[in-house]
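step=encode ok
step=design start
structure_in=
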């Protein structure tokens, strides 16, 4: 799929309408999201950006079906998330969302292939099929030679590749990447972003949560958050010019 055409003419995979999220902390109400609306089409690459406290982490939890909105609606692949039971949410999360975290979130006591296998166990697939799928996805991220190593035997970049493989193995509708290069040096970070770029070019829907404006160059679209609101949406030349301006200043 051509990356420039990926959002055009395709059905929305994410529809967010006037979504709010309020947390009660003692007697205080914290309005993390104050009414956010946006649509993400299948095959798009989108960066959700903003400083700490802007609401982007709350959006991550809501898009990943780890939480429900206080009001408004969120549709993932045509299903209203806020109407689901916890059990339905867990099933949807396992099948529809692939997570990649800054801290990798790997199980240190087991091998690379066993880490990638975890989502497939929850899906109930038989062992031979699970291993076949794991080997294929690990090959695709350049770790076919590391199947039986444990995370503590790998570099940071290799651990993040394992995390990406685990996110991909269920063929999810969206890949949610939360500051995926935050714990990596700049060269390794670029290699990881190249993997996401390749996945996007192959048709994956990739949503990047980050405070790093330089990562916006990679995405087709930036959703810029501030104080729980969607401040603006940037695309095309305007997006690239603003990223270049801020990166140049840095």
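sequence_out=
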């Amino acid at each position: 799929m051509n990356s420039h055409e990926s959002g055009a003419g395709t059905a929305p995979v994410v529809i967010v309408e006037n979504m709010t999220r309020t947390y009660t902390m003692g007697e205080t109400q914290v309005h993390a999201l104050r009414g956010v609306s946006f649509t993400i089409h299948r095959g798009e690459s989108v960066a959700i950006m903003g400083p700490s406290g802007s609401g982007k982490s709350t959006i991550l939890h809501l898009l990943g079906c780890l939480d429900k909105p206080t009001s408004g609606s969120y549709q993932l692949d045509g299903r209203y998330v806020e109407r689901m039971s916890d059990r339905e949410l867990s099933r949807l999360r396992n099948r529809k969302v692939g997570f990649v975290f800054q801290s990798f979130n790997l199980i240190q006591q087991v091998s690379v292939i066993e880490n990638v296998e975890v989502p497939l166990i929850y899906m109930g697939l038989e062992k031979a099929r699970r291993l076949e799928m794991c080997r294929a996805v690990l090959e695709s991220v350049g770790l076919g030679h590391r199947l039986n190593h444990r995370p503590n035997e790998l570099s940071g970049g290799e651990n993040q590749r394992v995390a990406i493989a685990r996110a991909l193995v269920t063929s999810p509708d969206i890949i949610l990447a939360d500051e995926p290069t935050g714990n990596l040096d700049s060269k390794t970070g670029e290699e990881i972003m190249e993997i996401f770029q390749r996945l996007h070019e192959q048709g994956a829907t990739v949503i990047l949560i980050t405070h790093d404006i330089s990562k916006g160059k990679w995405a087709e679209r930036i959703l810029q958050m501030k104080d729980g609101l969607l401040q603006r949406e940037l695309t095309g030349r305007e997006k690239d010019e603003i990223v270049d301006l801020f990166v140049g200043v840095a």
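step=design ok
step=annotate ok -> The first strand starts at residue 12 and ends at 25.
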